[in-house]
Design goal:
By secondary structure, the chain is of the alpha/beta class. It has 14 helices and eight strands.
Length: about 325
């Protein structure tokens, strides 16, 4: 395929296995194909988790190889040094392992590296291994999260329970830890929800001490807490981690995307059953791969064709090459 025809979504949650009632890898491949996406990168906080070579093999056995959509997975990171070494080895062993993922704060599932000293250990360990791939980070600093503020009868309270400052502080931490460790890979800040996070990424780029990228989701660009407040059922359906932000934040985030400060679009496609979304436990995450083309239609009048290619493939290819080289030969 020609580069201008390629689209990659580097952040989806395919579910499957114990969570097959939510979705499966094959189902997400099918959605991606309908959205014109040729490759997806699956996150490792599944049930069971993806932490080692056996887990990777188990996930790859579930892929629909008749699909036109290529499947890649991340391997998760924990605070165990031996596991970090194992994860890095998986990146070398498997062409389908796109990178490594660290949850610097709890989200959905049991995977997390919460303590700052452990997060620093991750970067030091990977630097000692001369790991040059991507470490994708979910940035919400645990000390600033207050679950008691969440009230399902007031869905926008989720943005108070997981405030902007939690993301901003965590992004600052990851930049500082990667810099301190002399990390030579790429630090990727997943699903930025507020302009202040992008500001930190911009400053880190200018400093030139680490390689850093950031991505944004369709839901953070298309929806805000104002939309979430319209009705109770809609508001709880739009519960995501990190949360939706204000309309002012959304508009500035869109401006940053158009101006070229955000590297790529990543959907953070995260399906749950409707019972889990609209009733206890009110899970975070929405099936946002369905919004991919809707977002492209919204932004198309404001950006050039070359910028659109960068957002949907070019910048992703640069960060994850040579993993994606074969897509150019299809």
């Amino acid at each position: 395929m020609k580069p201008e025809e390629l689209r990659v979504d580097p952040h989806v949650h395919c579910r499957g296995e114990d969570w097959s009632y939510k979705s499966t890898i094959a189902e997400v491949q099918d959605i991606a194909e309908r959205q014109g996406v040729c490759a997806i990168f699956d996150m490792p906080n599944n049930n069971p988790l993806t932490l080692n070579a056996d887990d990777v093999r188990r996930r790859l056995a579930l892929v629909n190889h008749n699909s036109s959509v290529e499947y890649y997975t991340y391997v998760g990171l924990t605070n165990d040094v031996d596991q970090i070494v194992c994860a890095a080895n998986c990146w070398h062993m498997f062409p389908q392992v796109a990178g490594l993922k660290m949850f610097a704060g709890r989200s959905v599932g049991t995977m997390s590296v919460v303590e700052e000293k452990d997060q620093l250990t991750v970067y030091h360990t990977l630097q000692g291994l001369d790991y040059r791939g991507v470490v994708a980070t979910h940035c919400e600093k645990e000390a600033w999260l207050d679950p008691k503020l969440w009230d399902p009868k007031l869905p926008i309270s989720h943005s108070l329970a997981r405030p902007k400052v939690a993301e901003i502080k965590s992004v600052k931490d990851q930049i500082g830890f990667a810099t301190e460790a002399g990390f030579k890979g790429i630090l990727h800040i997943c699903h930025v929800s507020c302009p202040e996070s992008v500001d930190l990424v911009i400053r880190a780029r200018l400093a030139g001490k680490i390689r850093i990228t950031c991505g944004v989701t369709p839901h953070h660009l298309l929806y805000s807490t104002e939309k979430q407040a319209e009705q109770l059922m809609l508001g709880n359906f739009l519960k995501v981690n990190p949360p939706l932000r204000t309309e002012a934040d959304r508009l500035l985030l869109m401006q940053y995307l158009i101006e070229g400060h955000i590297d790529w679009i990543e959907t953070d496609h995260a399906p749950h059953s409707m019972g889990e979304k609209l009733g206890s436990p009110y899970m975070s995450g929405i099936p946002s791969l369905h919004l991919y083309n809707d977002l492209l239609k919204v932004i198309q009048p404001d950006i050039s064709n070359s910028r659109m290619r960068d957002l949907t493939f070019g910048n992703i290819f640069k960060a994850f090459s040579p993993k994606l080289n074969h897509l150019l030969k299809k």
